[in-house]
Design a protein that fits this description.
There is one protein chain. By secondary structure, the protein is of the alpha+beta class. The protein folds into two domains: 73 residues, SH3 type barrels, CATH 2.30.30; 44 residues, no CATH class. The protein contains three helices and six strands, in the order H-E-E-E-E-E-E-H-H. The longest helix is centred in the N-terminal third of the chain and has 14 residues. It starts with a helix and ends with a helix.
Length: 143
Amino acid sequence: MKKLMILLSAAILTMLSVHADTYNYLNFVNANNQITQFSTTGLKMTFNGGKATVTSNGQTQTINLASMAYMEFSNTQAGGTTYTVGDVNGDGNVDVSDVNIIINIMLGKDDGSAYNGRQFVTDDNTVDVSDVNLVINIMLGKS
């Protein structure tokens, strides 16, 4: 039902005269109130298979709509909870250190509590090889 509501909201936004160029940011907010924020500069969204593929400023990310509570346009940069999908350690980069963190969580060497949910890269509340694959794909520009 939640996925249907998000898709319906997206369809309504497209049909109304709401223009992203009047806003600075698009926020996807998950059930843990974590925000994945995109600049509206060059913003493009497509929906397929329960996922939104968002391109902004030349960067593309895929958002699992089932894990989203809501999405909104905003003129304010989110504070504190904004992160880039795949940036597990929150340092502003998606790189091999993020892959290492995920592997250490999988091996039980790290409990993951320091990452505020960012370790769930695929938004399924589990840490597994699919999270590693997604981070690597983001690093390579394939996702």
